[in-house]
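We append the chain.
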Amino acid sequence: MYEIENRNIGKKIFIVAVVAVFSFLVGWQASSFGIIGDIFDTTGTDTADDLAGPANNENLNLFWTVWDKLDSEYVDQNVVASNDKIYGAIKGLVDSFEDPYTVFMTPEESKQFGEDIDGKLEGIGAELTVEDNLLKIVTPMKASPAEKAGLLPGDIIYKIDGKIAADLSLFDAIMSIRGEKGTSVILTIGRKNLENTFDVSIIRDSIEVDSVTMEKTASGIVYLSVNRFNEKTDEQFGKAISEMILNEPKGLIIDLRYNGGGYLSSAVELLSYILPKGTSAVEIRQRGKENEMMTANGNPKLTKVPIVVLVNEGSASASEILAGAVQDNKRGIVMGTKTYGKGSVQEVSKFEDGSSIRMTIAKWFTPNGRSINKVGLTPDIIVEIKEEDLKNKKDSQKEAAIKYLEELR
């Protein structure tokens, strides 16, 4: 069973985030792998026989043979610390799984990831992934320096302050983009339909984005922008729903654009406000276990108010879970453009030395059994954002959602 109320059971966190906020470069170079359990001990004192575990003894003997050869014959003595060699070996194993969402993190990287997922960071405010060894922007966070600088989902970062991104290690790339508030970074960007790359100078800032923000229109329609699915989302969403009920809303817009995801349980919690209790929310399929249909689990407060869910190519993971459940249960209309397409679930496990594994443990499907992985969710109503709208800062998708709800009266 997945823990819905408490996400930190047994030092494990169930997440469906595309990546950690802005700087955790998932899958960068040799950074993806499957769980290694207790095969390696960070003290470096165990023997091959001690560490063999369930793996093939002969292969582990080869590992230690190579280890000893490097230790005794490499030209520079003690050029690499024992812990760094162990972490490097683990990351090599990770890479063999070729899963950009399965990542081993050193203690320092784990600390950065923890800050990212909790929303405590300074930088440019963009969610990143790696595809075909290219550093790609999944989505700029709302009102972030990245968004203000004009970065878009799908943009490729070729250089960071003149350094080729693909030549940097994972952590070097992270730290090259992240930095103190007020400092600047120059990114060389490649964009679809543009022949040449271009440079963007971005002033770093503190990234503190509320999970949920609310606006009310003159026509009685409530607009809720859900920016992240973290530990604060349920509380903030519930507070907004309670407030809007008092004013008898004529319609509700749930804006998931540029929302790269977060906790699986947060998506289900939000669905529990708008779907009847027991309604199918998302199906989880995990190795060695029976398929599990997670359902709306609360006391719904908005089961009849018309809903439009706004999505775009920056909507991923938990955002797609919510939009897919609304669509399959015919609870409202999904509007905008096709979503990112991330249909897997990750689990974070922490180890005593501060390192951790972020590992894909399951795949998720919409209530009707649809997989959106690598294909995205197609909205019921397609509304594109035109180039001239971007230049004029006109939100034609939001305007279309308001018009749709107004015409339902």
Q: What stands out?
A: Residues 68 and 74 are 10 Å apart (CA to CA). The chain is about 25% helix and 25% strand. Confidence is low (pLDDT under 50) at residues 1-13, 17-52.
